[in-house]
Amino acid sequence: xxxxxxAIDQGTTSTRFxxxxxxxxxxxxxxxxxxxxxxxxxxxxxxxxxxxVRTQEVMRGALEKLVNSKKLMVSDVAAIGITNxxxxxxxxxxxxxxxxxxxxxxQDTRTDVICNELAKDGGQDRLREKTGLPLATYFSGPKxxxxxxxxxxxxxxxxxxxxxxxxIDTWIIWNLTGEHVTDVTNASRTLLMNLHTLDWDDDIxxxxxxxxxMLPEIRSSSEIxxxxxxxxxxxxxxxxxxxxQAALFGQTCFSAGEAKNTYGTGCFxxxxxxxxxxxxxxxxxxxxxxxxxxxxxxxxxEGSIAVTGALxxxxxxxxxxxxxxxxVETLAKTVEDSGGIYFVPAFSGLYAPYWKSNARGAIVxxxxxxxxxxxxxxxLDATAYQTREVLEAMESDSGVKLTALKVxxxxxxxxxxxxxxxxxxxxxxxxxxxxxxTALGAAYAAGLAVGFWKDYDELRxxxxxxxxxxxxxxxxxxxxxxxxxxxxxxxxxxxVE
Length: 497
Prior knowledge:
The chain has helices spanning 48-68, 112-119, 128-131, 140-150, 154-159, 168-177, 184-187, 202-208, 243-250, 309-319, 327-332, 372-398, 415-425, 437-450, 456-460, 475-490, and strands at 4-10, 14-20, 26-33, 45-46, 77-84, 89-93, 103-104, 163-167, 181-183, 193-194, 199-200, 217-219, 222-227, 236-242, 259-263, 267-274, 285-290, 298-305, 342-344, 362-364, 405-408, 429-432, 465-469. It is α+β, with helices and mostly antiparallel strands.
């Protein structure tokens, strides 16, 4: 009997291959970063071929660690799950597998002209009833249109049926199995899928002038899509979830009203809303949570924040005030608070609940007193403040008052941030024993498809609490700090005309 499930976790800045045992414990992992390409202000790209090379490298790396410890043969891996940075768009030639352009990353804002033009008739919410999404640069559909309209010769090839589009999940599955598929969660991030039919919407395809022949087949999040043709040859590829939905699944938020927040490059809070899509009146997204095999689809409300962990990377790479990302906590601890400043990191505009692509980042309240410790502290505080904005919107839309927040992602090991998060939310913050819930969710989906795990109850039994932070802040101070943040955010609006 196979002992393990593997997951490819293809993120915004790196790719990981993680192997889990039946209890959901990590038994091997390998990780590699890939290049971030910034051709112009607001433009963010990745090289899809580099991502596929890194994927193969980390697969080999993790497998070698287990083989060398005499714990693994190929036959010990039951299935592979995929999870991925969402909304990042790749277009490639079907015959050669060669991309026609770099992947346009979810943070990229070059499609603001397209989105503004579409919004002239019906406003920013003209597609929200069908898709659950506002017109925004965040999503894949406008990125496809930009590639078709701006890369020479590409539209003609697309209309002949010679090109394929995919978010990164589709790109990885194509290279791994030869199949051109996606799942409902990734499809729901394109602005092209109808939430109610779970199929590509012909009216929207016509509006954006995107040939349907480019698009992958939409499947459930847990079924066998094909088998690996290279590394782990013959092993089923049977799980596919966008990274934030994978974290929701990995946190075992299987009941309506359960929520999680993932702290990565950006920050993403999702709440399970059950089998009926709930429209948002507060600037959130209505999205697919997951669909397991032939079961009904489960929907979620999502609050998306563009820049959280990416702000720490900016402090490291652009300002050079820290040597590595983990140093930010040590630097922030050199001061008692942020020194009266607020750092609003609207590098890619503002996402939920504002959806202002023409906002730009600002540090507000600067005095001569401020030093690099205060800037580091304000950078961490910004993540907590933005999360509170999203949580308030989610509680307003859902009518559910959260009693605790499940958290995961790289930043949840920052003790200073987690305590401030609990303080500013006034609810407990809970970190699970296995914090790699994104990869774990993809593994769970893959495992359910092949019978490695039998049901949700078995998955729930794997979840355990590692640490909990409880609010300690005086309510008056909490209110004052948050009011200052709300004022600071307004300073970033409409910076780009």
